[in-house]
Design goal:
Helix 5 crosses helix 6. Helix content is 45%, strand content 5%. The chain has a three-stranded antiparallel β-sheet. It has two domains: 82 residues, no CATH class; 50 residues, RNA-binding S4 domain (Structural Genomics Hypothetical 15.5 Kd Protein In mrcA-pckA Intergenic Region, Chain A). By secondary structure, the protein is mainly alpha-helical. It contains six helices and three strands; from the N terminus they run H-H-H-H-H-H-E-E-E.
Amino acid sequence: MGDIKRVRRKYKPPRIPWDKIRLVQEQELLGKYGLRNKREIWRARAVLRRYRVIARKLIGMPPNEKNRALEKKILEKLKREKVLSENAKLEAVLNLTVEDFLRRRLQTIVFEKGLAKTIYEARQLITHGHVAVAGRRIKKPSYIVKREEEDTITFTQKGSGRKVS
């Protein structure tokens, strides 16, 4: 198993630490999505990288039952998370960006629904336990909201003390 204190990284830091173009892009994403630090961007980038690697392998392989099953499984998962549209093909996975995954975070959706005035307030409401998804309190701003859960985002019974407009 492994030591609990030694948690494995779920991202890879950039190879060139002081690349100006990347730093500017990351700073824009930090502000736009109200992220705590750049590791959250790197984690989303790692998730995107994994899907793209699988998609490239599947596109290059001859079509057989096993490959079709894996392709269907990946596409269904991305459609369930609302990262891809309903009629998307495997090639669409290669066109995904980090922003597509950042848009599906609970923090972003709480802000877009108008439950918080700013993206930073949305993060605070979530971490303090004022937001529930399908009746379940979620305290992780990075929680990826599924397509069917999107309409069930509300304040918890504890509430935030604010009226929802």
